[in-house]
Amino acid sequence: MTKLMIDKPVLGIILILGVLGLAVLATQLGGKAFPWDDVVIPVILAGIAMLGVNSMRKKKEE
């Protein structure tokens, strides 16, 4: 259980970087602006919120 808690933030960071990478690729391949406001920013905010919730849960368990 503790191993999963340590890996989740790392997975979140990898996911966020992956999404950003895909956004950059889509922008370059499509030739039009990627919808940053509609897609990327909410994903990043959700990821940060998930990290915050996970760290709060960890503190409660201790």
Q: What are the main properties of this structure?
A:
0% strand; mainly alpha
Notes on the protein architecture:
- The protein has 62 residues and is mainly alpha-helical.
- It has one domain.
- It is built from two helices and no strands.
- The chain has helices at 2-30, 36-61.
- The protein is elongated and about 50 Å long.
Mean pLDDT, as a whole number? 70
Percent helix range: over 70%
One letter per element, helices H and strands E, the order comes to HH
For the largest beta-sheet, the strand count, sense and barrel status come to: none
Q: How many angstroms does the end-to-end distance come to?
A: 13 Å
* Rg measurement, Å: 15 Å
Strand content: under 5%
Tally of alpha and pi helices: 2
- Total beta-strand segments: 0
Spans of at least 5 consecutive residues with low confidence: none
The figure for the number of domains is 1
Categorize the overall geometry. elongated
- Counting helices, strands and paired strands, the structural category is mainly alpha
Chain-wise SSE layout:
Blueprint: H1 2-30, H2 36-61
